Structure formats: C-alpha cells, structure tokens
From TrEMBL:
The keyword DNA damage does not apply. It comes from the Bacteria. GO terms for cellular component: plasma membrane. One of its GO terms (biological process) is response to antibiotic. PANTHER family: ABC TRANSPORTER ATP-BINDING PROTEIN (PTHR42711:SF17). It is found in: Cell membrane. This is ABC transporter ATP-binding protein. One of its GO terms (molecular function) is ATP hydrolysis activity. The keyword Ubl conjugation does not apply. It comes from Amycolatopsis alkalitolerans. It is a peripheral membrane protein. Keywords: Antibiotic resistance, ATP-binding, Nucleotide-binding, Transport. Residues 20-254 form the ABC transporter domain.
C-alpha cells in the first residue's frame, strides 16, 4: 500500500538470513489502517519486545507473522517464507503462545504435551531434535508436581506455564509470546525469564514477545520495538532508546541529616562536583537512571504531540 501515503517509498532490499523480515506492512480493518508501513527484522537468537499502547496493533502484527491473519499490503518473510503461504513443515518450526488459550481442559498435562509433541516428530532434524522430551519439558516449565492433573484444574499461573510448554514442545526456531507472564507470581516470572534466556542463548531461538511489563521487556529483550499510531516509532536496545531521549537521572543524597534530590542528564558530572564541594559530608548516595518505563512514556508522549 505504498500509494496510500501519496508518495513512493524506496523499498529496502531483503535482509540476508533474517528470521523475520517485515517491510512496509499495512493492515486495514474496514476503513481504518491499524498498521501503516511497519518495518523491522530479527536475526537468529535475538529477543525482541514489541511494545505499544492498547490497540496499537501488536497482536495484529504477530497474527500476520504467524500466518493466522492476512495482511493488507507489504512484504513479510518469516523463516524465509511468506506466512500467508506457509506449509506444515514451516509451521512446525514456529512456536506460539497466545494471550488466552482455554482448550484441552480435560487433558492431563503430561498426556497433552506428549500428544501435541508427536505432531513434530516428522520434522525432527540432525540439528534440532523434535519434540522436546516430555518430562524434561514439564520440569523446565515447573509443572512436574502437576504432570498428572487435568489442564482444567490448574491455577491461572500453572495454566500459563502449560501454555508456554505447548508453545515450545516442538523446539521452535522462532517463538511468539503474546503477554506470556500475565498472571505469573514473581517466582514463576523469574523462572520464565531464565527459560527465555536459555532458549535464546542455548538453542538460538528467536523470540518476539509482547508485554505491558516494561521491566520485563528491559530484562529480556535485546531490542525493543515501540508501535504507536500504526508505525514503529522506536527500534533499539533499552540503552540506545534511553540515550536517544537523554532522559534525566535522579540523584539522591544526605548531608548534615538533610535529604536532597536532584534530576540531571549528566549524573556522573553532577556527583563528581557534589563530592568536590562537600566531600565526606555526603551520605546515602543513590543514582537512579531512567528506566525503560520513563523512556517509553517520553517516546510515546513525544509521538502523540508531534503526530
Ligand atoms: N478482527 C478485527 N476487526 C476489526 N478491528 C480489529 C480486529 N482486530 C483488531 N482490531 C482493531 O485493531 C486495533 C489493533 O488491535 P490489536 O489487538 O492488534 O492491538 P494490541 O496492540 O495487541 O492491543 P492490546 O495491547 O490491547 O492487546 C484495535 O483498534 C482493534 O480494535
């Protein structure tokens, strides 16, 4: 839909060996353009977090990449294929954890994973043994004590762990996680983060996740993509985005029993001068750098003002 903007845009050449290559992706529902020329790529083993306000089009983007939704226009390559024409062998290389999945209530955890895993056996290769050994997988997602329970009797967080196990049972090369830790307690969240690191570091799995938890995105993602107004308004590591916004750090200290707070973009220089001036009288020094949440809010607000 190049013409929709009234200008002809140069089309970026395809990126060699990219796991994901999205160019000028448009999606229209009725008369509303939800995606207006989205561009991004992902390499093997990269973890990408797709962030954006409610209704920004994150789920739509993921569904197009998974081949569940037909795009209006644009070039999309997922593991080298157009998802609109992906066959069974291509699908076996993807893993999907959707936002809510309430099927399989009568199945027992181990039985279900063994059954779903059997579909992947034909797609095993020398490099990637499919499916994942069922007991190892159950242990990996922390469900060993619940392996014989019916899916319908699991708690919300346990159910979500099962969703993750279903998503990775075929040892996917590319894994889509739509708000994966919604409903997780802090321990389950920590274990899940370890699992994501393991999948990307040890198995070279490429992961695209959506989350509204910016702390989680900062911990997990090599690269952050922010989707707003149908476009990618930021694409970089959390550090790169923070530098781009030159957001302020907060410096706190005490002197002579009094507490002080100062916001500055040059925290190191400020602290140096503080010690030159007051030396040993300074106590309880704390420097809080901008979090991804600060940067995200600044970027989205800036976008809304200039839109
Ligand atoms: N099948 C559909 N038909 C019409 N409009 C739709 C359809 N699916 C989504 N939309 C609209 O497209 C926009 C993007 O929705 P989408 O679910 O992709 O957003 P999101 O970024 O995933 O939101 P959230 O953070 O709330 O999950 C919304 O305005 C939504 O109402």
């Amino acid at each position: 839909m190049n013409g929709a903007r009234g200008v002809v845009q140069p089309v970026r050449p395809a990126v060699e060996n990219a796991v994901l290559d999205v160019r000028d992706l448009w999606m229209r529902y009725g008369t509303t353009d939800v995606l207006k020329g989205v561009d991004f790529t992902a390499q093997r083993g990269e973890v990408l977090a797709l962030l954006g306000p409610n209704g920004a089009g994150k789920t739509t983007t993921i569904e197009i990449l998974e081949g569940f939704r037909m795009r209006s226009a644009g070039e999309v390559r997922v593991l080298g294929a157009d998802p609109a024409r992906g066959d069974e062998a291509w699908r076996a290389r993807l893993g999907v954890v959707l936002q809510s999945w309430r099927d399989h209530a009568k199945w027992r955890v181990r039985e279900l994973l063994q059954h779903l895993g059997s579909y992947y056996r034909d797609y095993s290769t020398d490099r990637i043994r499919r499916p994942w050994d069922v007991d190892e997988l159950i242990a990996t997602v922390g469900l060993t004590a619940h392996a014989q329970k019916r899916a319908g009797s699991l708690s919300g967080g346990q159910r979500r762990r099962l969703d993750v196990a279903i998503g990775i049972v075929g040892r996917p090369e590319l894994l889509f996680l739509d708000e994966p830790t919604a409903g997780f307690d802090p321990e389950a969240r920590r274990e899940f983060h370890d699992l994501v690191h393991r999948l990307s570091d040890d198995d070279d799995t490429t992961i695209l996740l959506t989350t509204h938890d910016l702390d989680e995105a900062e911990k997990l993602a090599d690269r952050i993509l922010i989707l707003a107004g149908g476009e990618i308004i930021a694409n970089g590591s959390a550090d790169e985005l923070s530098r781009r916004m030159s957001t302020e750090a907060e410096v706190k200290w005490t002197r002579d029993g009094q507490r002080f707070v100062h916001s500055t973009v040059e925290a190191t220089k400020f602290v140096h001068e503080l010690f030159l001036q007051h030396g040993d009288a300074i106590g309880d020094l704390e420097v809080r750098r901008a979090s991804l949440e600060d940067t995200y809010m600044a970027l989205v607000r800036q976008f809304e003002v200039t839109k």
